[in-house]
Write a structure and sequence with these properties.
alpha+beta; 9 helices; three-stranded antiparallel sheet; about 450 residues; about 30% helix
Length: about 450
């Protein structure tokens, strides 16, 4: 009896062992098959097979390994979005974190080629200290700014350029932008008007001719500016032409070369060279010509007895008469255009708002509520602005009707003179309003050079 019982127990143990062996053997073959499926590149199928093995051997680790190999395959095939998702889910497995940063980096490079700059910047940021990710953020900002400039969004482009002003050729690009848009194609003296025509000759109206200002033989002119009683211009090869009153030797500007921009004050003239250096000549009682040490200037404007310069980083320089506070611009930033009047200064900011400083006797500095402005100009005691829709706004002295511009439209450029206002329409027509005792507003010009 005892022997039979022992035999039965042994038999049961043998059968149980055999059953366990069979079950384990089946899982063994399933395990091997899952490995082979993975080797063939069928990652999803392999993962499912490993999941069905439950706790067998290292099936759970093999699931991670399969996801790793799957992520690697997507990475090699430049499907970085999927690879990033898989490596991210793998956490600390093997070198997944390092691979994830590599994928972020390569994905960002791929997006740059598609002009998806913001997403690329986010990915470079996510890549942390991998390779040169940090410098690639700056490079991507640079490429985005170029793309925006080339596609007509100059303001957004300038915002970026001014935030990386010392990178590569950014200062030159900012400089080039300002030379393209801040040109004086027309200007107002005290009692005369001058303008550059399409073919490079200069038109004039008012008393200037009677005062000996003769520009009939000028040709190949690209910029022109009027002082109180003199005119200066730049030719296409950077030479300066001058004519008129020379009481303070302001006409020696004709000796300058390589000029890209010129601006006349009451009795002094300021020029911007192609290398960003500024020159000045003429009346200098208030040191308004003290610009020899200015650098990185992208736009200039001469007021009555002072000079303003816009730097490539959006800050502003000023020299000359300070009595009315017209030179208190040291705290200005994000400026994209400046203009000096008689005793007040205005600046256009990146966001389309306007700042001002100086004499406000006539409310000419009441511009803080302006918005959507694309250009500004400061006159004797008034301020003019162009809105995005091509209409104008004006504040300040209107004794001569110089602010009667409310019904003008389609304007692309403006000039606020001493007592009369000029505006250029997109069709080349020049408009004038204000003091007209010498016929300075009697113009019928429709072929003025466009910016």
């Amino acid at each position: 009896m005892k022997t039979a019982l022992t035999f039965a127990i042994v038999l049961i143990l043998i059968i149980s062992y055999l059953m366990i062996f069979v079950v384990l053997d089946i899982k063994y073959f399933d395990y091997r098959e899952a490995l082979e499926v993975r080797e063939s590149g069928e990652y999803d199928k392999a993962i499912l097979m490993f999941e069905q093995l439950g706790e067998y051997k290292d099936a759970s680790i093999q699931i991670q390994e399969t996801n790793y190999q799957k992520a690697f395959w997507y990475m090699q095939n430049k499907q970085y979005d999927i690879a990033a998702y898989l490596f991210d889910n793998l956490g600390e497995y093997e070198d997944s974190r390092h691979r994830l940063n590599w994928v972020y980096y390569k994905w960002a490079m791929q997006l740059i080629e598609k002009n998806e700059f913001d997403s690329a910047i986010n990915l470079f940021s996510a890549a942390g200290d991998y390779s040169d990710s940090e410098s690639q953020i700056t490079e991507t900002q640079y490429l985005k700014a170029i793309y925006l400039m080339e596609n007509g969004d100059a303001i957004e482009s300038l915002k970026i350029f001014m935030s990386i002003v010392d990178y590569k050729d950014v200062q030159q690009r900012i400089f080039d932008y300002h030379q393209a848009v801040n040109k004086y194609f027309f200007s107002a003296g005290v009692r005369f008007t001058v303008a550059v025509k399409n073919l490079g000759s200069v038109e004039m109206a008012g008393e200037a001719i009677a005062n000996g200002i003769n520009i009939a033989n000028w040709a190949d002119v690209k910029n022109v500016t009027a002082g109180d009683n003199f005119v200066a211009a730049i030719t296409s090869d950077g030479r300066v032409l001058t004519v008129g009153d020379n009481k303070y030797n302001q006409l020696i500007a004709s000796e300058w070369g390589s000029m890209v921009q010129i601006s006349a004050g009451g009795a002094h003239v300021v020029g911007l060279r192609s290398d960003g250096i500024v020159k000045a000549a003429g009346y200098d009682q208030y040191n308004q010509c003290g610009v020899d040490d200015w650098r990185n200037i992208v736009q200039i404007s001469a007021g009555k007895n002072y000079t303003i310069g816009l730097k490539s980083d959006g800050t502003v320089e000023a020299v000359g008469e300070w009595v009315e506070g017209q030179c208190k611009v040291d705290g200005w930033s994000d400026i994209i255009q400046v203009d000096a009047g008689t005793n007040h200064t205005v600046g256009l900011k990146l966001d389309g708002t306007v700042v001002s400083t100086g004499d406000n006797t006539f409310g000419q500095c009441n511009v803080s509520q302006w918005s959507d402005i694309v250009a500004v100009s400061a006159g004797e005691n008034y301020t003019l602005g162009i809105k995005k829709d091509g209409t104008l706004v004006c504040v300040g002295d209107n004794t001569y009707g110089q602010c009667n511009v409310g019904n003008w439209s389609g304007v692309i450029a403006i000039y606020a003179g001493k007592y009369h206002t000029l505006a250029l329409r997109a069709d080349g027509t020049l408009l004038a309003v204000g003091w007209n005792d010498a016929g300075q507003c009697d113009i019928n010009w429709n072929d003025i050079k466009l910016p």
